[in-house]
Every structure is written in C-alpha cells, then in structure tokens.
C-alpha cells in the first residue's frame, strides 16, 4: 500500500469541552505492563474508574501512553463510538486530527451538525476544546490510491468502503491513514489506529459552536475574541 511520512508540528483535534481529562491516564506509571493491576486496585476504592477509563483492554500494553495530556489520546481508543466513524466500524477507536485548525473546525462542524440534526436539537451552543500535538509517523496514503477505491474511501456520504479499508489496514498493523479532508478543500487529515502513532497533545484554546436549529452558523474563538462564520 502507498505510504507517506507525516511530520507535523501541530496536529489539530477538537472535542467537546464537556469531556474532561481522564486523570488516571495522566498519573499512571510509564510502564504499561502494570496498568491493568493498578486500574483493578483503583477500582476497589473508586467504582467509577471503569466508566472513566473505558475499555482499556482494547489497547495493547505496548500501544498505551501516559502522562500529562495522554487521556486526550487514550480516550479515543477506550471510549468507542458504536456507530463507527469513517475508518472504524465501531469495534475499535481512531484518533482523528488535521494539519490545519480550519480543517479540524470544518470536519467537526459537519459531524456536530449531523448529530444535532438527528437528535432534533433546538438552538443551542456547545463549548469545544482545541488540542494540538505533534505527529511523526508513516501513514497509509489514501490520496495515492487508484480509482475507484480512492473515491469510495473518500465518499462524503457513505463510510462502508472506508470502514472496510480501515479495518484491513489496522489488522495488518498499520499506524493509521492520511487523507484529503472531505469537508474542506485542500485540507489534510489523519486517522491514527494506535496511541503511539501520535504525540500527546495539549489544550490550545476553546471554541463555542452555535447551532441555530438547522446548522452551525458561527463559532466563537476565545483566543481571538470574535465570532466567525464557518
């Protein structure tokens, strides 16, 4: 399969601010081999640990990361979206990020709108947490795929082909995929299949998405202190 080396000083990821850091991942020993025993011990006094950390068994010990900011990576692989995503059928996690902040906003606005529309949400606002971290790894290059597979994997409306492609790559041991953004022309995204394929990110800023009942018509950037139309 065609691959491309990715060396990004900033890989932008946006998540809802209501999801707090998972402090257990932040303070666990760097030795992942003893995590399961430590987590079991923690559960003896804190029964909510299981809900907090999610399905840790989904991440092999050699792929686990810890330390400040690690929960932002680990949560992508231990708290699954059972409905799936572009490159996952819902049985494993993927860490999505973009080379440009504008691309990360366009991608997450699209999915935010789809969720709000399906839920019949009334007009509301949602604070979003912007994360930025490094990426230095070899990824499978979707843009280099031959037609018609490339178009099938990048289908804006269906994930059927992309999920089968992602499953096959993950099972083969691939670190992840790099692909053209479907929601912003010229943007580039990655989908990492393993925590160690990406650097541990840190919070960079907050945004506020405004859903008007039909779409996200603007967002507020707390750093720039302005409302912006996406």
Provide a descriptive summary of the structure in words.
With 230 residues, the chain is of the alpha+beta class. It has one domain (3-228). It is built from seven helices and eight strands, in the order βααααβαβααβββββ. It has helices at residues 23-27, 35-45, 49-53, 70-78, 101-119, 149-153, 160-171; strands at 3-16, 95-98, 124-141, 176-180, 188-192, 202-211, 216-221, 226-228. Strands 1, 2, 3, 4, 5, 6, 7 and 8 form an eight-stranded mixed beta sheet that branches. The chain is globular. The two termini are 35 Å apart. 35% of the residues are buried. The model has no long low-confidence stretch (mean pLDDT 89).
Secondary structural class: alpha+beta
Number of domains: 1
Fraction in helix: 25-40%
Give the tally of β-strands: 8
Q: Describe the global form.
A: globular
Rg from alpha-carbon coordinates: 18 Å
Index terms:
8-stranded mixed β-sheet, 230 residues
